[in-house]
Amino acid sequence: MAKRQGEVDDEGTPIATRRQPTAQKERTSPGQFVKEVRAELRRVHWPTRAEVVNYSIVVLVVIVLLTLFIAGLDFAFGEAVLRLFGE
After folding, report:
1. Burial class, 74, CB count within 10 angstroms (exposed 0-12 / middle 13-18 / buried 19+)
2. Cβ–Cβ under 8 Å, residues 59 and 65
3. Who contacts 15 (Cβ-Cβ below 8 Å, separation ≥6)?
4. Which pLDDT value is given to residue 84?
5. d(Cα 83, Cα 75) in Å, to the nearest integer?
6. Staple 7 to which of 2, 19, 46, 54, CB 3.0 to 4.6 Å?
7. How confident is the model at residue 21 (pLDDT cuts 50, 70, 90)?
C-alpha cells in the first residue's frame, strides 16, 4: 500500500518527501496592514449598548448560579465525608 501511495520505492526504502515549491508571498507594508484591518473592522457587526448590557447580565447571573451550585456540591460532599468518617 505504501508503494502504491508513493511512500516507498521497489526495494521498500522510504522515498524522501518532495516539497512543492511555494510561491513567495509579498509582505504587506505596515500602512497597508492598518488599512486592511480598518476595512475589516468596518464590516464587523458591533453589538448595541442594550445587547452588551443584556449579555453581561446573563453572564453574571450564570456565574452566580454556577458558583452557588458548586458551593452547594462542595458543602454536601464535605458533610458526607465528615459523616462517613464519624466526626
Report:
1. exposed
2. no
3. 6, 7, 8, 9
4. 93
5. 12
6. 2
7. low
Beta bridge partners of 8: 14
Alpha carbon of 78 to those of 38, 69, 86: distances in Å? 54, 14, 12
pLDDT of residue 1: 74
According to the model, what pLDDT value does residue 35 have? 95
The answer to whether the Cα torsion of 58, 59, 62, 64 is positive or negative is: negative
Q: Are the C-beta atoms of 7 and 14 separated by less than 8 Å?
A: yes
What is the arithmetic mean of pLDDT over 62-70? 98
Tell me how far CA of residue 87 lies from CA of 30, 74, 76, 77, in angstroms: 68, 17, 15, 14
Confidence of residue 26 (pLDDT cuts 50, 70, 90): confident
